[in-house]
Amino acid sequence: MTNVLITGAAKRIGASCARFLHSHGCNLILHYQHSQLEALALVAELNAIRPNSAVAFNADLLQVEQVQGLAAEALAVWGGVDVLINNASQFYPTPVEQVTEADWDSLLNSNLKAPFFLAQALRDSLLERQGCIINLVDIYAQKPLLGSPVYSIAKAGLQAMTQALAKELAPNVRVNAVAPGAILWPEADVADGEKNQILQKVALQRCGNADDIAKAVWFLIADAPYITGQTITVDGGRTLFI
Fold it and tell me: For residues 179 and 211, is the Cβ–Cβ distance under 8 A?
């Protein structure tokens, strides 16, 4: 049985990945910070399908000691972790002239520092079980988003970390990334005109869905034994127009 830890798993892409991987027989360790109700509801949903197949743990990924605590809890559930999916992320605009040190720390820590120290804490288990790491980056790691330089820098760092860890943990652990494009609209309302403007710059002329990301993640887990250090872009052709 494959044991998978997903950070930020209570909602949106993280929850979709959890459901998809669970449907393919994986055991799920779901991390959440603020979304306790959603996380516990998802655990109940998955365990109703297959008993003792999902658990949830709370941690503030901005605190290294809590990252290490999350890793210890994950390792204790079923005796090891096979797959780490670094999905949790903070995102908000940061015009250059308004960036504070707190903004820098928040965005870099959540998108880059936490994934690194979580990978470090799970390293021995991943090596022993010949597992894999999948980082959720962003198309803006390669083509920075205007008005969000700090987020773009953080995701670019995560993409570089993907390549670095692929070298460091080879040959027993594969490390790859998935870069979503227009998949889910932000939880804050987005005007129809703004949505249309974005979709006009997507080659497939439509928004993707979270299962598109989950399928790419599953491919990297189950069907890509000779792929490491790579980023799969799932954006409907959005980067063709950036």
Answer: no
Contact partners, residue 227, CB within 8 Å, separation at least 6: 174, 176, 220
Both tokens assigned to 29: 């360790």
Q: Which CATH class for the 3-241 domain?
A: alpha beta
What's the token pair of residue 100?
A: 């504070």
Please name the helix (run of DSSP H) or strand (run of DSSP E) that holds residue 141, with its range, or none: none
> Which residues have a Cβ under 8 Å from the Cβ of 31 and sit 6 or more positions away?
5, 6, 7, 8, 9, 56, 57, 58, 59, 61, 70, 88
**What is the set of active-site residues?**
151
Cα–Cα distance between 170 and 147 in angstroms, integer?
A: 37
Above 90 in pLDDT, residue 198?
no
How far is it, in rounded angstroms, from Cα 137 to Cα 112?
A: 10
Tell me the pLDDT tens digit for each residue of 41-74. Answer: 999 999 999 999 999 999 999 999 999 999 999 9
